Amino acid sequence: MSVADYDGPMMSDPPGPTWDELADNDSRAVPEFLRGESWRDLGDEMLSVDRYTSPDFFRRECEKMWPNVWQFAARVEEMPEPGDYVLYENAGRSYLVVRQEDGSVRAFHNVCLHRGRKLRTESGWASDFTCPYHGFAWKTDGTIKTVPCRWDFPNMRDDDVKLPEAQAGVWAGYIFIKDNEGGPTLEEYLAPLPDHFARWRHEEAYTTAWVGKVIKANWKACAEAFMEAYHVSATHPQIMPFTGDANSKYMMWGDHVNLNITPFGVLSPQIEDAATEQDIIDNFLKYNGRVVEPGMTLTVAEGRTARASMGDHNRKRFGAMFGRDLDEASDAEVQDALTYNVFPNFSPWGGFQPTILYRWRPWPDQDHTLMEVRLLGRLKPGEEAPQPEMILLPEGGSFADHLGQLGNVLEQDMYNLPQVQAGMKVSKTGQLRLARYQESRVRHFQHTLDKYLAREEGDNG
């Protein structure tokens, strides 16, 4: 069922043009996979705050969900050479994601099989993984290399002490791991993302900035803050003069992938005052830290729209940045927020523009989240990507210190989230109410979580 077809209670047409109507006027053809409807009415049942505050609910996520989902663990530029490894930790488990001699990637549990010490506590390069406690050592392919005083383990075979291995897969420069066997392949799990992103070539992307911050809120509450544009008018009022918040479009595919498209270069339909196309551009340049640069100016020619003018400018600008001809790119693809989410915690933006990438991990419990924000550029032909490192902000640190105007917008979200967690803990009703359309991605996300939590022990399909 599409939102256009739904005629049930409490549903009415949003104000202003739909995103598809805006796309009809783009100066280049918008990809068909972004057109039309891919939305399901998932009802309006209330959600319990226990999903965010209960230690028992969190325990069930750690036991039944996290080991059975594909998780974004690293980008390929983090580990370009054999022996490079990334320490990936989440939900009480620790992994070493290792580049092999043949260029492939494998993932091993980061635990010594002798007395249980972690083998590594940070990412780096290694010829082997030697435990600092007693000196047991493993090759980078997970097979045992050295056992001090091997004579004192008479019944131990080499196969007994292979490092336990998780599944690993690579798509478009992103490295994923999945602990338990079974279930969909990585490509099946991500569908239709690979088809969509083939156009935007993330295999040519690389990390230009990477900032992490610990938020005093549940990981789901943090992720869900980026699944809808409904909060824009209250949380980010400064962007409304160039953001079609209530014109946003919501799409979902299967259990694992959904999308929010928020148009830029248009006036919010919730603003009643008139604005010229030049007013829209001027506000765009002042407050959008993603597709504009400091000091940038742009004049809207007579008879042109702000949206088309920004499209023309960004096709040239991003084409020069990426070393690519972007003449085919639609206005939407060089300015709109095409915010995908892959269950449970991977959110890459689409389009021909510097890419935002989010990841959320419980850090370490139901009340804290490590939120990571990456910016991805594109390699020009012949360029090699630098090896990135995350900047972990100290308590009280700001995304704005490293991400500029984008960071200022993110900090407005960060201001809300600890109070969301605190409010849910003292809620008298213990219930949350979701908008039927604008927050449908949140409900889609929660429905998928329920499917994992309902599985029987050993069911990883």
Automatic annotation (TrEMBL):
It holds the Pfam family Ring_hydroxyl_A. Coiled coil: none annotated. It comes from the Bacteria. The keyword Iron-sulfur applies. Residues 1-24 are annotated as: Disordered. Residues 70-177 form the Rieske domain. Transmembrane segments: none annotated. Its cofactor is Fe cation. Keywords: 2Fe-2S, Iron, Iron-sulfur, Metal-binding, Oxidoreductase. This is SRPBCC family protein. It comes from Sphingobium rhizovicinum.
